[in-house]
Amino acid sequence: MSLALEAVNVSKRFGRVLALNDCSFAVPAGRIVGLVGPNGAGKTTLLHIAVGLAEPTSGRVHVFGISAREDVLGVLSRVGFVAQERPLYRGFTVADMLELGRRLNARWDFAYARQRVANAGVALDRKIGSLSGGERAQVALSLALGKRPELLLLDEPLGGLDPLARRSFLQELMSTAAESGVTVILTSHEIAAIERTCDYLVILGRGRAELAGDIDTVVGSHVAVTAPSRYEEFIRTHSAIVDTERTERQISALVRVSQAVDWPTGNGLQVRPVNLEELVLAYLRRARLERTTK
């Protein structure tokens, strides 16, 4: 299996703050990956390390087997990166930005980038500063794709977009991925967008990867259990509790199971499948709780 990105025991410290803590996971090539986690989980830091904008305190991130620490130009030639703030020059026209892309990238498909901008309905003579958030997002995506990358990294690409602009952006992204086979990693708090767009999931929490795998597989390995409190020991013995709520008489838990469990249903114990939103929220709640009680 070819890996587009691999993080191996990556830690990153900013003073006293440990943004990443022995983080390890792998992303197979050709996937559309949702990278999710609470604020401060290390998502942006990880992407910055991948493209050489930051160095890890320890560990390494490989992009198609290459580390930016060892060969940053080799990595950047294969990666398109759209930062969270979409850093475009407000005084430039769209045409100026495309020309800048041509001059900065040895492998640049000017006709493709220009056609993408045209398809988005953005005139080449428009100033970047006059564009809407959705239009700027489309220009930024066109610049990233104009270099024909093998890996596309998108940091909160939906931030600040209205529902129609989000929908248009995601449609363009899925169409491009299907046509070119580019691997996509996007960070987002929009669970519905992750569910609609992605086929692979990575959840970061406490600076490390809590979960990584095919979305259908990871969702299928979790269930929701509601039972009288006397069953708590059974639940803990046969599964890993991700998130739980208790009353004096009842426990409700979202749990991860590694093998088939013969749940003693009846007598008040109920088990049901979970959906992606429930799964992600459970891991986010756990990360937040552990952070506040640390």
Label the overall shape. elongated
CATH architecture of the largest domain: 3-Layer(aba) Sandwich
Strand order of the largest sheet: 6-7-8-3-9-10
CATH topology of the largest domain: Rossmann fold
Radius of gyration: 21 Å
Count of DSSP strands: 14
Please write the CATH class name of the largest domain: Alpha Beta
Q: Pick out the low-confidence regions.
A: none
Provide mean pLDDT, rounded.
Answer: 92
- The figure for the number of domains is 2
- Specify the biggest β-sheet: 6 strands, mixed
Order of helices and strands: EEEHEEHEHHHEHEHEEHEHEEEH
Percent of residues in beta strands: 25-35%
Number of helices: 10
What is the percent of helical residues? 25-40%
Gap between N and C termini, in Å? Answer: 38 Å
Write structural notes for this entry:
The structure is a single chain. This protein is of the alpha/beta class. The chain has two domains: 3-206, P-loop containing nucleotide triphosphate hydrolases (Rossmann fold, 3-Layer(aba) Sandwich), CATH 3.40.50.300; 218-290, 2-Layer Sandwich (Alpha-Beta Plaits), CATH 3.30.70. Helices cover 35% and strands 30% of the residues. It is built from ten helices and 14 strands. The chain has helices at 43-51, 72-76, 94-104, 110-119, 133-146, 163-180, 191-197, 215-220, 232-238, 276-292, and strands spanning 3-14, 17-28, 32-36, 58-63, 66-67, 79-82, 151-155, 183-187, 200-205, 208-214, 222-228, 240-246, 250-256, 270-273. The strands form three sheets. It has a six-stranded mixed sheet, with helices on both faces. The chain has a four-stranded antiparallel sheet with strand order 2-1-4-5. Strand 7, helix 6 and strand 8 form a beta-alpha-beta unit. Helix 3 runs antiparallel to helix 4 (110-119) and helix 4 runs antiparallel to helix 5. The longest helix is centred in the middle third of the chain and has 18 residues, at 163-180. It is elongated, with a radius of gyration of 21 Å.
